[in-house]
Amino acid sequence: MCVDDGAPGGLPIGHVIGTAGGVWLAYARVPQGDYFGFAQVARGLPTCDAAIRAEEPQGITRLGAGKVRFAEPAVAYLRKPPPPLSLFTEVQGDDLVLDFMTYKLIRDR
User: How far apart are CA 64 and CA 95, in angstroms?
Assistant: First the structure.
């Protein structure tokens, strides 16, 4: 799974793997010293869709055209993700910085 950050292929943030037994494992991007790697964040999930959802916090609405809406649960998750996940998160004016990648913020009115 990749976030569309404008780069070819996007920014990898996680992946899922199906096992021979028919269950799914979820992996997410995590800090490992001075770089980022991937760690298992869920296992034994019944479907690929369940594994993908295991990596996505509650409170994100996909609006299409590369836009998403963050509700309070998603904002709280971004501020303090559960271990072993870790994110550098900062708001600079109308920009959201996640792991040193900048995304434009547009406030709902």
Answer: 19
Write out pLDDT tens, residues 6-38: 666 666 677 788 888 888 888 877 767 777 777
| φ, ψ at 16 (rounded to 5°) | -125, 150
CB contact at 8 A, 66 and 58: no
Q: Which two tokens stand for residue 101?
A: 């990648």
The predicted pLDDT at position 16 comes to 80
In the DSSP assignment, the letter for residue 105 is -
Q: How far apart are CA 55 and CA 25, in angstroms?
A: 10
Q: Are 77 and 89 in contact (CB under 8 A)?
A: no
Task: Name the phi and psi angles at 74, rounded to 5.
Answer: -70, -40
Helix (H) or strand (E) holding 48: helix 48-54
Report field, pTM of the whole predicted structure over 0.85: no
